[in-house]
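Problem: given the chain below (118 residues), write out its structure.
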Amino acid sequence: MPTYSKLNLSPSLNGRPILITASGSPGTVVHTAVSGVAVPPMDEVWIYATNGDSAARTLTLQWGGTISGADTFVAGIPSKQGLYLLVPGFIVYSGVQIRAYSDVGSKVTIAGFINRIT
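Solution.
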């Protein structure tokens, strides 16, 4: 029977949000999935974003690569409107990296968690 462990996104320090400093590709690392070629282990990823700037921002998530369209999700993040769910429990494994960049660096913050399934 699988075991679930709730964990922070890998670069998060003690559960703190991650400031997206990158304004282009490759983006700021948001999470690096568990290693291994067999499934499980795998990470179920939940990611939220907020924008504290006075203008709406565009956030691009890079999912395991940097090919526009194939590896990316693009979202508009409104100004000062709270948290927006970007990733609702997608699965990653084999050390896949999730990165993010915004049209203006250091304006959007990412928060979230993973459920590690072993």
